[in-house]
């Protein structure tokens, strides 16, 4: 980051309305399709509690704003009501839900708040100007508060009205979650304890080629797994059968392989695979003794030899970053690779950072989250920061155009 991050330590919030941008984009569930929704996983709400609690203790009048899902207009299925209810349960304090995100009625509600009270705005994505970073919407949000705090790291790569635009109109600062994310991720780039081992999995190479090339510059070892391994194997001339291998991923994979030949980073690819026959279903899962996938078969996980080899790299590491499962871990026959990486990281004495929704979900399903140094709440934001890109939501917190008071 070019500049010092302004934090809530720098804000005077006593008695002031503070607009807190949080990431409450949580999964919902219902007992029946027409019944009331409730929060299915409150990890992101829990992540915001430190900032919420601190601001309330310091006498702030909290105005909470977030998106939920991707509605294009008002849709009651994406109302913030279940989030407000769950936050009230977690804090033991009432959380009022505004009828909209902005407007005269909402403004009146913010003005009636007393220190420590909380008002949640309705889903900011109900406002068409949000994703367009509308200056009008940013101004309407700024009218609701005297200061702004951004704690939504997972949305920091988006220049939206509630993540970037409003930050230029109010004294602005980073919340505690935002601070933790930036500290953990910038340490990987700027001052990792070596060896630095990166484990990348998931699907498309083209989506992650920037971070692949970045780690070829930064890391000591880069281990590739998941579906994104197959374009690399295909680019080397290996048969990948019916494995996921988009044509558009082959050239990025070839470029990364070429870069690896002159890199100090050692690029590791699978040595064996778990695959499935075309008509075998889950029961047709087989460990292939090698990486040649027969025609019509599909590779769905790294094999046990590969998992052991990647685990040995983790055991020898000083810092480990992991993004992307090693296979279709939601299917038990193909969960072995992801499970092995998670357990290897949990047993490691290294600094361990896990990023990406699916990867964090896998770690939590194994109840290993407490064994990791940091679980990142960001998906795209995490990868873009590691690639070296400037995040608009963070850049806006490196300065305060109207002055920090």
CATH architecture of the largest domain: 3-Layer(aba) Sandwich
Q: Specify the helix fraction band.
A: 25-40%
Q: What's the number of structural domains? A: 2
Mean pLDDT: 94
Shape: elongated
Beta-strand residue percentage:
15-25%
CATH topology of the largest domain: Rossmann fold
Strand order of the largest sheet: 5-6-4-1-7-8
Specify the structural class: alpha/beta
Uncertain residue ranges: 400-405
The name of the CATH superfamily of the largest domain reads Phosphoglycerate kinase, N-terminal domain
- Quickly count the helices: 14
Describe it.
The protein has 405 residues and is of the alpha/beta class. The chain has 2 domains: 179 residues, Rossmann fold (3-Layer(aba) Sandwich); 156 residues, Phosphoglycerate kinase, N-terminal domain (Rossmann fold, 3-Layer(aba) Sandwich). Helices cover 35% and strands 16% of the residues. The protein contains 14 helices and 17 strands. The strands form 4 sheets. The protein has a 6-stranded parallel beta sheet with strand order 5-6-4-1-7-8, sandwiched between helices. The protein starts with 16 loop residues before the first strand and ends in a 10-residue tail after the last helix. The C terminus is likely disordered.
List the helices and strands and how they pair.
Blueprint: E1 17-21, E2 28-29, E3 38-39, H1 43-57, E4 61-65, H2 81-91, E5 95-97, H3 104-112, E6 118-120, H4 135-142, E7 147-150, H5 161-165, E8 172-174, H6 176-190, E9 196-200, H7 205-218, E10 221-224, H8 229-235, H9 250-260, E11 266-268, E12 273-276, E13 285-288, E14 298-302, H10 304-315, E15 319-323, H11 336-347, E16 351-355, H12 357-365, E17 374-375, H13 380-387, H14 392-395
Parallel strand pairs: 1-4, 1-7, 4-6, 5-6, 7-8, 9-10, 9-15, 10-11, 15-16, 16-17
Antiparallel strand pairs: 2-3, 12-13, 12-14
Helix pairs in contact: 1-2, 7-9, 7-13, 8-9, 10-11
